[in-house]
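Local shape tokens

___
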Amino acid sequence: MADSEGTMVIRAWAEPAQNYGIRARLISSRPGEEREIVEAAADADQIILAVRRWLDSLQQPGA
């Protein structure tokens, strides 16, 4: 894998019966890290922030 490549898998689901709205589990790899990062998000804004952080990490030299 090149230094500027990574992978993110997002599993999202709706939980209307519990009034949680949308939730997600995000599994990603980042440049320079051997282990996957697993995050949970409780709403769409948190999901978008997690994706943005991951994308930003791909642009950081030496990250």
About this structure: The first strand starts at residue 7 and ends at 15. The radius of gyration is 13 Å. The first helix runs from residue 44 to 59. Residues 25 and 43 are 11 Å apart (CA to CA).
